Amino acid sequence: MKFLVVDDSATMRRIVVNSLQRIGFNDTIEASDGQDALVKFDSSVQFVITDWNMPNMSGTEFTKALRARSDGQHVPILMVTARSVKEDILTAMEAGVNNYIVKPFTPQVLKEKIDALLLAAAA
Length: 123
Known about the structure:
By secondary structure, this protein is an alpha/beta fold. It has one domain (2-122): Rossmann fold (3-Layer(aba) Sandwich). It has helices at 10-22, 34-40, 59-67, 86-95, 107-122, and strands spanning 2-6, 27-31, 47-50, 77-81, 99-102. The chain has a five-stranded parallel β-sheet, sandwiched between helices. The model has no long low-confidence stretch (mean pLDDT 95).
């Protein structure tokens, strides 16, 4: 399974990629913001993990833009962000995010969210 990891922080991208590798997902590409992610996204990407707060194009803007594309309408999108206010979670879901993790997180929480989204997508 191929993941697109979107975060303006190279350190955070590394943490997410390392967590993915720990739980058995080794095929990842990285993007530094939403604009970069839209360029790098193609039909081989099967799962997106994005931050919210990024320059140029935020995670919610990226999600809306991806959902507007025919090849991005059904890919699971998990937002991993420090924003924890209930209104922010609702805004992300309205933008098209499928699930939400508040930083910091553990690889186990990441695995549980990914598994839940994959199970829902298969149903």
